[in-house]
Every structure is written in structure tokens, then in C-alpha cells.
Design goal:
Length: about 170
């Protein structure tokens, strides 16, 4: 299985049926497959905090949900995560395309890419970084299980080394 299939399989194993996302070319390989699969309902959002709100609303109605976003947009979602997800104990796996690392062509992506993991630490949120497919199934399945057992968001940070990145 490639990385996209591992994520899709993990989402299915956790009965996660609603996926809110902000479109991004680097994660289009997985969100396109999710969109083609009738198991899922893929809901596009214009901003990351909107995607968080959609996912929290789905969870409030009894559906497991996840969010896909880019690390640069993570900054937009911090208030929604800190003032909604964390106090309401909402288990939302957040799949984040990490920008600003090795091979980055857009200097504007570097500051938020560097700040994302420290911000997650400050919020007390567990996060995992995926650089390749080695043990990825165990990491993603374990992260989603932990997310639901702890009833807190968990970030799954996907680097350019995993998905190939965005071309200039």
C-alpha cells in the first residue's frame, strides 16, 4: 500500500466517514481518492478553522471526522482548536501537509512550518511526523486510536519526504 491507501484504510478502520479539508495540491492524491470512495463524505472548506468547525459539528452528531490542511493554514485554526476542540474534548485527527522544510521553494512557508510542532506542544496536543511509509500504518492507526481514547485532537504531520511536496 502507498501512503494514500494507508491513510484511507486507517480512516475506515476508525469509522471516520466525514473529512473536512482545505484543498491543497500536495495532499490532493489522498483527498481525490477519498472523494472517489462512497464510504466518505468529503467537505471542502475555505479556511482551516471552518474545516475544524465542520469536523466538530459532525462529531457532535455522532460521526467520526478528520481534517486535512496545510501547516501554513494551521495558524488560522489555532483558536478553533484551543477554544472548541480542546475544552469540548473533541477527537479530531488533523492530517497536516508540512511546508517549510527540506526542498521548500516558497520562503513564506518556512515560519509557520517551523512553528507548527512547538505550537502543538504548547497546546498539549500529541503529534506524529510521517517522513516515509515505514511503519506508517501502525503510526496512523495508533494516532487515531489515541485521538479517540484521549478525546483530544491529534496532529499527523506529513512531510514532503512522504508525499513528494509541491513543485515550484
Amino acid at each position: 500500500m502507498d501512503w494514500t491507501e494507508i491513510i484511507i484504510d486507517s480512516l475506515k478502520q476508525s469509522d471516520t466517514t466525514l473529512i473536512a479539508y482545505v484543498p491543497d495540491i500536495s495532499i490532493d492524491r489522498v483527498t481525490s481518492k477519498i472523494d472517489d470512495d462512497p464510504y466518505f463524505q468529503l467537505v471542502p472548506a475555505t479556511r482551516e478553522e471552518e474545516a475544524i468547525g465542520i469536523a466538530v459539528g459532525a462529531y457532535a452528531t455522532g460521526r467520526n471526522s478528520a481534517v486535512f490542511m496545510q501547516s501554513s493554514g494551521f495558524g488560522n485554526s489555532i483558536n478553533a482548536i484551543a477554544s472548541l476542540c480542546i475544552p469540548a474534548r473533541t477527537p479530531i485527527p488533523i492530517f497536516m501537509n508540512m511546508r517549510g522544510g527540506s526542498g521548500e521553494f516558497n520562503i513564506a512557508q518556512v515560519p509557520m512550518g517551523r512553528a507548527t510542532r512547538p505550537i502543538l506542544d504548547e497546546l498539549g496536543l500529541v503529534h506524529f511526523t510521517l517522513d516515509d511509509e515505514y511503519n506508517m500504518d501502525k503510526i496512523v492507526n495508533g494516532a487515531i486510536k489515541l485521538c479517540h481514547a484521549n478525546r483530544q485532537p491529534v496532529a499527523i504531520c506529513m512531510t514532503q519526504l512522504l508525499h513528494g511536496g509541491k513543485l515550484a
